[in-house]
């Protein structure tokens, strides 16, 4: 059973860097059975895909966010992190981490509860 929990500041200043951590319980984030994703939902809008870190540690990000997104991991703590630089009001959203089962593309079977991040001026 995969459990995920997001953590980080709920308030980020305009133009600063947003940093969130997802703590995983259950499998190791180095397990070849899962990929680890970040997804967000701005207020009144649908889900927006942000990026992924694979079991190998390789990352990929959504093209519109690629220049501002950095995803990393701490295998000792079984955590992966999201950093989003130069935030604007458009980055206000609920941020989720999710686990994708390898071999089932798009099957995000496990999600964290989400964490609200507000960009303030």
Short précis:
The protein is an all-beta fold.
Descriptors for this entry?
single chain, mainly beta, 4-stranded antiparallel beta sheet, 121 residues, 7-stranded mixed beta sheet
Structure description:
This protein is mainly β and 121 residues long. Helices cover 0% and strands 53% of the residues. It has no helices and eleven strands. The strands form two sheets. Strands 2, 4, 5, 6, 9, 10 and 11 form a seven-stranded mixed sheet that branches. The chain has a four-stranded antiparallel sheet with strand order 1-3-8-7, with no helix packed on it. The chain is globular.
| Unreliable runs | none
> By helix and strand content, what is the structural category?
mainly beta
First CA to last CA: what distance? Answer: 40 Å
| Integer-rounded radius of gyration | 14 Å
Q: Please outline the major beta sheet.
A: 7 strands, mixed
Shape summary: globular
Provide the residue-averaged pLDDT: 96
Strand content: over 45%
- Tell me roughly what share of residues is in helical segments: under 10%
Task: State the total count of DSSP E strands.
Answer: 11
Could you spell the SSE succession in H and E letters? EEEEEEEEEEE
Secondary structure tally, helices: 0
Q: Determine the oligomeric state from the structure.
A: single chain
